[in-house]
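ugh ok fine here u go
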Amino acid sequence: MGELIAILSGKGGTGKTSLCAGIATALAQQGERVLCIDCDVGLRNLDIALGISDLGALSFTEICSGSYSIQQAMPHPVYNSLYFLTAPLNCTSDAVDIQAFGEMLYRAQSHFNYILLDAPAGIERGFTLAARFAGRVLLVTGPDPAAIRDARRAGEVLELMGKGNVRLIVNRVNKKTVAAMGMTVDDIMDQAGLPLLGIVPDDTNMVLAAAYRQPLLGYTRGGAAAACRRIAKRIRGIPTRIPMK
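structure:
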């Protein structure tokens, strides 16, 4: 059975969706069969980060309703083991049938090694919808105090939900800026209260790749793209060094 991984953040602007796309692409490059699901109902953007915004994709609610099968998820045009379901536009998170959503994910586990759920920022319904069924949670934060505080609060909510396999990813890390704030990555971990999975450097290529409608790992190899490949290896159980720690 495949593994369900929720990609969450306590606040907006952490780069969570870009990281979800980057990690999914890296897993596919490493030979895994991956399904990405945009769970940000009404504000979907994962297709942009994957470089497929000009292509039509089924929404996960169309699979939940039984109108289509999970095997009809859209294949990525470049990475042939990467598939995608978008979020519906004309409904709210409250309207999503939780039982049908869970049943869809269960079926997906028979066809994919990893299912990545890109949830909306914050700790409202979309957050809990994605986290509810996940066996592993990746909580994305920035190095700034507000993002760290919100990550800690999100971690507390996940703990109350009974989620024990939660790991922190610190995104948009500028070593000089973090040092100027008198902080280390260890300080960020301590303040967020979570173990570290990865550090992603601040990288303008994330924005440029989206602007040119390309997936990050197809646009560049270093910086954030290299960090996504290292994180994908750790998800697969392959030890890799965490730089800048």
